[in-house]
Amino acid sequence: MNKAYENFTKEEFIVEITQLKEKNLQAEKIISEYQFKILKQETELAQLKRMIFGSRSERFVPAVPPEQTSLGLEIETVEAEPPVTETITYTRKKEQNSQPVKRGRQPLPAHLERVKIVIEPKEDISGLKCIGEEITEELEYEPGKLFVNQYVRPKYITPESEDGNQKVIIGLLPSRPIEKGIPGPGLLAQILIDKYVDHLPCYRQIQRYQRLRVNIAASTISEWIRMTVESWIKPLYNLHRDII
Question: HSE (CB half, 13 Å, CA atoms) of 94?
């Protein structure tokens, strides 16, 4: 035992221990404050290095996501002054007889093979006169080959009835993956397999179709994928989940 405490009474020992505990708590508090300051300085230094030496996309990315509570270690930013703007007006000569550009569906290339599929009406057409055809084209795919299914539906008109009415009869189109869309089920299946199974990006698929002399826009193929997933894959997934 330290000689300084040899003559201490019990009460003096208690007082001395209490004082030592208070000093220890104060020392721990001071250490915690210094540790926080060191952490803050390290965070600020890392942010400054990222702003100065990081890639362009990383220089001004906040260290803390906006949805996450901040710890107060970020560098304070100074709001920049709003830019000075000015209004510029000009006049130009109006073109005569200008007509709006009509944007329609791009026709399927004529060089592709056409596979004609004739769909006759279910009604009895004996003795009826054919007055024309409705042709619906569907872009289809076989491995390494694109071709067009051409559904030909003859239209027939019935003889006049007693009240002078006539009726046009035409066969019904089969069910299609995308209503009023041009891609067939084989083509859509190949696009999804290439993208999600073989990890082939859409732009590479587009390049492959271009080698077959068929141009498909990136926005078009993306919309095909979205509609196929929502109409066919998602319901199947929900049913599978319910079964499990």
Answer: 4
pTM, to two decimals:
0.48
Is 157:127 a contact under the CB 8 Å cutoff? no
DSSP string, the chain: --GGGTT--HHHHHHHHHHHHHHHHHHHHHHHHHHHHHHHHHHHHHHHHHHHHS-TTTTT--SS-TTSPP-S-SPPPPPPPPPP--------PPPTT--PPP--PPPPPTTS-EEEEE---SS--TTPEEEEEEEEEEEEEETTEEEEEEEEEEEEEPPP-TTS---EEEPPPPP-SSTT-SB-HHHHHHHHIIIIIS---HHHHHHHHHHTT----HHHHHHHHHHHIIIIIHHHHHHHHHH-
What are the structure tokens assigned to 23, written together?
A: 């000093």
| Helix pair angle (218-228, 185-192), 10° resolution | 100
For residue 41, which phi and psi values (nearest 5 degrees)?
Answer: -65, -40
- The residues with which 103 forms a beta bridge, in sequence order, are none
Contact (Cβ atoms closer than 8 angstroms) between residue 73 and residue 42: no
- Strand 168-170 relative to strand 114-118: parallel, antiparallel, unpaired? unpaired
**Could you give phi then psi for residue 116, rounded to 5 degrees?**
-80, 130
Cα–Cα distance, 244 to 242 (Å, whole number): 5
**Radius of gyration of the chain from Cα atoms?**
39
For residue range 173-229, what is the model confidence (pLDDT) as tens digits?
Answer: 999 999 889 999 999 999 999 999 999 999 999 999 999 999 999 999 999 999 999
Of 122, 133, 135, 131, which Cα lies nearest the Cα of 157?
Answer: 131
